[in-house]
Amino acid sequence: MQTHSRGLSRRGIVVGAATLAAAGAKAQTRNENVGTPPSVITNPPRHWGPNAQPDMYPDPDIIVVDPAFNQSLLYITAIRRVATGFKWTEGPAWSSEGQYLVFSDVQANIQYRYIWETGHVTRFRDPSYNSNGNAFDFQGRQLSTQDFNRRVIRWEHDGTMTVIADQYQGKGLCSPNDLVPHPDGSIWFTDPPYGDTLSEGHPDDAGGATNAAGLFNPRIGAPDAGAIGGRKRELPNSVYRWDPSGRLDVVVTEDQLPDPNGICFSPDYKTLYVISTGKGPGDTGPGGGGNIFAFDVQGSKLTGMRKFTDMMVDGIKCGPDGMRADVSGNVWISSNAVLGYSGVIVLTPAGKLLGRIRLPEVCANVTFGGPKRNTLFMCGSQSLYALQVQTQGAAPG
Q: Which of 1, 100, 104, 145 is disulfide-compatible with 85, CB 3.0–4.6 A?
């Protein structure tokens, strides 16, 4: 794993006014007389290592589609690659008290911390039991989903661990993926089957939906597979609400939204956004279509389901995975697409495209952190990126 301190790779970034937006647009058009600022789409592409040459402002990999996006951007900051060398990064979450970012390398079975003060990345929990999503609740306690143990857990301030949910109506969960806390103390999480595999957890026992023919032995290299959590897929994909009383309820069914993945609230907690991604292991139906849906939050229930976005940009399907909202209600969404469209797209609460952040690899999830919560952290497939912005993430991190 290669890490870069925060002072090593300052890069030009974006637009903060209409004039800079116009300049950025011109910079994206190749002009042999003046040169082309290196970006993810130039040949050769921009260099992301610690010895990269300085880039022109505005950053050519920040695309302003609507001038309103300028209000969320800073003139003189940098997209920077904080660390690289991972397998599949996921679940970034910011600890305001600890001043660190926690994130998962799901396939490597390790959870990492990025320490704000030093800029170093250190191992935090090893093994992590294929932790995927992470969050911090309103008391500052870390919440995590564990693909391997197919459960949601909470780390208490005294270092003990509490199991939030590992079954529903006596049946084991599929593989909880992403989660968000609510001010009322509840925890809302998605439960697709993506962790029911050799690479991100363990497959079902023979005869289960993800191991119907019994070809895989889930306990090779993982003798405790199934010792905690489900051994076979027993439930449909769902979105759940866990109540502080311990009650667990399905709030979105598989029939409504197949393969739920990323999840986040609007700043006022009146809207819940849920990503529906592609067909997962063991699915018998067609799976999700890579769309995002919005729901009205009515206490402990959801109503008014509607499509928020189909994630189409310039005719390109920008497959979503994770997302977070800022204090203005804009939604910052990870994008898995072809080079030039991988990274992050930003939409208004009405679903209007504001702009894009291009990364040299696909992006799995995002969050806001830093002392002022104005740094956008982006988990690429193999790397962690950061960008200072001119907005704040909706609390908590």
A: 1
